[in-house]
Amino acid sequence: MISSGPNMTSWGLRKLASFARPATNALANGTKVKKTPLFLVPYLYVKVSRVIKSFSYIALAAYGLTLKARAEWNSDDTLKEADSLYEDCKYKEAYDLLKQFKDNDESEVLWRLGRLCYELARPLKLDSEKKPLHLEGYNYVNKALELDEKNFAAHKWMFILLDLKAYYEGTKARIEKAYQTKKHIQRACELNPGDGTSWHLLGFWCYAVSDMPWYQRKIASALFATPPSSTFEEALSYFLEAEKAQPNFYSTNLLMLGKTYLKLGDKQKAMDFLERSRDYAVKTYEDATTREEAIKLLGGLK
Q1: How far apart are CA 131 and CA 137, in angstroms?
Q2: What is the pLDDT of residue 28?
Q3: Cα dist. 99→49, 146, 266 in Å?
Q4: What is the pLDDT confidence band of residue 214, given thresholds at 50, 70 and 90?
Q5: Cβ distance 47 to 93 under 8 Å?
Q6: Are 280 and 249 in contact (CB under 8 A)?
């Protein structure tokens, strides 16, 4: 890391002072100091002047680079470029762009980095490959919330990444974090009611709790006096709220509507939403996997 201007200059002055230290020590000890030949004085003057000048140029260059980086971040162009890359599914490019600003203490940079870590991990097959990215993403989003508790997007991505962090710690840890994850997504919905993804994730929480296997319910009962609970009807209400906020915005929301209607025994509505999910334009890795699941479910209904 390049030092700032004032630090570099101070270092240069300390270096120059060290040239004179032997003579100073000698005088203090009463030792005779050897005089510098007169013909060398102009030469030493020029050398010292050049050293000072060099240090000044380095200091100014370093200071200029620091200001340049800050100026680049202060512009909205950086976030706009990162969002454009994200929309084009160029996750690695967006990650590389934003990571250079990870130490700027800007929540808008940090939650986006968390999102990109999640997207970079999505196509990986092994948990051992995904885990480092998920934990890195969690750390970014956690810092984003420390900086700005009212950032709805940071709460949304904390819901996702906190659950994934708990996943690596085991079933018990994941159930223990259930209430905490729900609070984050409820806060996201409260802060931005117009965000369909937040409503979808709240619906997903309700669906997952309603569909919890018996052994997980037993663990939850042992951990909490009042274990997490929900219903498929509640999950449906949030999936529909997501669709109301942003119609046809997300292939997975259409899939979950179809799956929830299946749980509630409404086969016709389930088929309607599953067909919409199947026919959704495939743009992302998630769209592709969602389409495959929709096709499989529809095959079982015919």
Answers
A1: 10
A2: 44
A3: 40, 18, 47
A4: confident
A5: no
A6: no
CB atoms within 10 A of CB 283: 12
Query: Which pLDDT belongs to residue 80?
Result: 95
pLDDT higher than threshold 60 for residue 250: yes
Amino acid making up residue 203: G
Whole-angstrom Cα distance, residue 52 to residue 48?
A: 6
Backbone φ and ψ for 192, nearest 5 degrees, come out as -145, 85
CB burial of 164-202 (b: ≥16 within 10 Å; e: otherwise) equals bbbbeeeeeebbbbbeebbebbbbbbebbeebbbbbbbb
Predicted local confidence at residue 75, as pLDDT: 57
Output the pTM of the full model: 0.74
How crowded is the C-beta side of 14, counted as CA atoms within 13 Å?
A: 6
* 3-state DSSP of the chain: CCCCHHHHHHHHHHHHHHHHHHHHHHHHCCCCCCCCCHHHHHHHHHHHHHHHHHHHHHHHHHHHHHHHHHHHHHCCHHHHHHHHHHHCCCHHHHHHHHHCCCCCCCHHHHHHHHHHHHHHHCCCCCHHHHHHHHHHHHHHHHHHHHHCCCCHHHHHHHHHHHHHHHHHHCHHHHHHCHHHHHHHHHHHHHHCCCCHHHHHHHHHHHHHHHCCCHHHHHHHHHHCCCCCCCCHHHHHHHHHHHHHHCCCCCHHHHHHHHHHHHHCCCHHHHHHHHHHHHCCCCCCHHHHHHHHHHHHHHHHHC
Q: Could you tell me which residue, 297 or 229, shows the higher pLDDT?
A: 297
* Nearest partner of 91 among 133, 61, 49, 56, judged by Cα: 133
What number is the average pLDDT over the span 10-37?
45
Residue type for position 172 = K
The pLDDT of residue 143 is above 80: yes
pLDDT of amino acid 294: 97
Q: At residue 15, does pLDDT exceed 70? A: no
